[in-house]
Amino acid sequence: MILGLETSCDETAAALVTVGGEIHASVVSSQADLHARYGGVVPEVASRRHLELVTPVIRETLDEASATLDDVDLVAVTAGPGLIGALLVGLSAAKALAWARRLPLAPVDHLHGHVASLFLEPTVLEPPFTCLLASGGHTMLLAVDDRAWDGVRVLGTTLDDAAGEAFDKGARLLGLPYPGGAALDALAREGDPEAYAFPVARVPGLDFSFSGLKTALLYAVRDLPADELERRRADLAASYQRAIVRALVERVDATGADRVAVVGGVAANSELRASLPQATAAPLALCTDNAAMIASAARFTTQLDPPDYLRLDAYATAS
Ligand code: KG4
Ligand code: ZN
What we know:
- This protein is an alpha/beta fold.
- It has two domains: 2-117 and 287-311, Nucleotidyltransferase, domain 5, CATH 3.30.420; 127-281, Nucleotidyltransferase, domain 5 (2-Layer Sandwich), CATH 3.30.420.40.
- Helix content is 39%, strand content 18%.
- It has ten helices and ten strands.
- It has helices at 32-36, 43-64, 84-100, 110-116, 163-173, 181-188, 211-222, 226-254, 270-275, 292-298; strands spanning 2-6, 11-17, 23-30, 74-80, 105-109, 129-134, 139-144, 152-157, 260-263, 280-281.
- Strands 3-2-1-4-5 form a five-stranded mixed β-sheet, with helices on both faces.
- Strand 2 (11-17) and strand 3 (23-30) form a beta hairpin.
């Protein structure tokens, strides 16, 4: 059994997953409410909250699976990229647990984790495939040739904001609470996606750009009188979402790939899922950050024996 830990941003998560990819328990404790009043994640607040939550979340995970630490054969943990202080909490907890029981430890790249959400039972997707990874921190097109992270190549990435960031910033302009992606998705369902023609940036190759779109929404919101804005919020949300989804789908289509998968928080978006009917989308519960995907990735990651992992460090940015 693999015990996975994830603390890269504002979710404290633990999971128990078998070597065969079956999830026995997956617990995610979101700190979103704590950060909402600031309109985004406050790194120092996140680190402190992870510290408070990490042990209870592991305990709840073991309880949910009716397991104990005796059942754990491998500890897997996100080593980066993410908020460095937040990552260090998970990494330190993982080292302590593994070392106390002389277990091996597998450091996992968070982005590999998102891809590995597709390798879990009961719906395992076998490489090769082209993967759109769209989250709050990253937006990438990946060629996945193998289940190991070194079998994944980056075909394109965002030049500025991530798609999830665009959703969150747009949601904020429309007065929705942080993190606004899911709320904007819901509001968009009541609006007309053709009401506003928001620009979709066309950058060369398979890269993405979302910062211009955010500015276009800012101007549209600013130009509307308050009462009018209230009436047009759903139309603005629908049109804005349409522009983001169109940008993502265009790039996926441009790869010409016939086997496509979508992962990351934005893969939970209803319009994106509907716009890529031929694609395999990660199960909804595994789109946003969780530890089952980290344990899943650990199966295809080099494990370090005790005490080799004690000198491991976390990393904030993708290498
Ligand atoms: O993968 P994730 O949990 O965290 C990162 O690794 O960044 O992604 C979180 C992002 C947030 O920006 C959130 O607003 C967005 O995913 N998100 C959505 C939806 N659900 C979550 N965006 C659009 N539509 C959704 N339904
Ligand atoms: Zn993530």
